[in-house]
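User: I'm new to structure prediction. If I give you an amino acid sequence, what do you actually give back? Let's try with this one:
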Amino acid sequence: MRCLIAFLLFISLLPAAEHLVRPGEAPQAVLDAALPGDRIVLLPGIHDQRPGRHRALLYVEKSVEIELREGATLRLADGATGLEETPEITTDQDAGKKLDDLEVGGTFDRSQPLIFTIVTDSEGAEGRPDTFAWGVFLGVENPQGAAKPAPGGSAFAVTPHAGVAMTGDWQELAHGVKIRFGRRTGHNKGSRWFVTYDGPEAYGIRVGHGRQAGIIENVRISGKGTIDMNASHNVQPGFLVKDINACVLLHGRVRGVTVTGITMTNTNRSVMCYGEHSGKFLPGGGVTEGESFDAEAITIERTRTLNPNGAGYLLGHPSFRGKIRRVKCNHNYMETAVTAIEPNFNLDGYEVIGNVIKSGGLAIHCWRHSKNGLIADNLRIHDNSGKSVVEFGAPRGWQPPERPTLRNNRNHLEP
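Assistant: Good question. You get back a string of structure tokens that encode the predicted 3D arrangement of the chain. For your 415 residues, that looks like this:
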């Protein structure tokens, strides 16, 4: 036993090793062989990778530093993700439904990524069935604030096919897709579902898979290089589904993680971090008994997000309901089509300070319940429409955010 203790002490005193990864080599194999405390360095050049463990180009489960040298790009390889036949139903955006009984069937023609919107437009009376309206958006990127026009002239969430009676059997929409409601009556008017046909999720660097038993801590992702999720040459997930692409994902029991200096581009979101929970999710953010896998002490600083068709930083998530505490998202620069920074569900104790934001949509959006926040000294640029820097809200049936401390947040074109 004394020999073992002495050996472990000796190992702990060894200097951390530095592992250099050249383009064409496998960074995951290098990381897997590294010891805690080691440093993984991606050298200049294009590091094309396909999703591997937990859908990541590089999955981290130990205390290491990952540096992307200037000129190094960790990139999702061309054609690594394609259009899938199985859709995802997004229903929990709205917790006010009386009935949530929509099923999807048929054979999708795989013509292109798309999103169906289905909404009940009348409640049946005197024995008549409820009716619904529907429409299809020919794309999966968030259209709000996007610079390019909607594909095919379609419009998101518009439902031109109205007053369709619910039959309780399969009813055809378009592109080979059919839907069925379990009951013909009992739905409340305005209940909404989105059905997305898209590609599978992928992540650049992922720390934690959500329900790891132990804590993954003291991870540093740094450098002057780039993570590129290559949305132009892959089918990415729709913006409404549960699992979307991110350049960096921190998930579950992760603690003491720093993301600094790097550039992130061509993705749904640049950085996402949130906890996890093993209980059954309930409408409006509740959860049954279970184990909570919480994230804490996360710092995102001095990064760049260049994401002309996507969003930026997501802090907390309604579909992963562990807690996330003590998050700093400070002194970053971002250009996004839609929301740049989003304090979200189960976030407790956060700073959003000194960021420079160019956004086609919202700059900082506190969305669903978060608390104990400080939002200060953020600057919104290149917006002459008078949009505010900070907005607040929650979907129907969800608890709204607690108002953070606000100080000196400015739109630089305001008078």
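You can read the tokens as a compact description of the fold. Here is one thing that stands out. Residues 88-197 form one domain.
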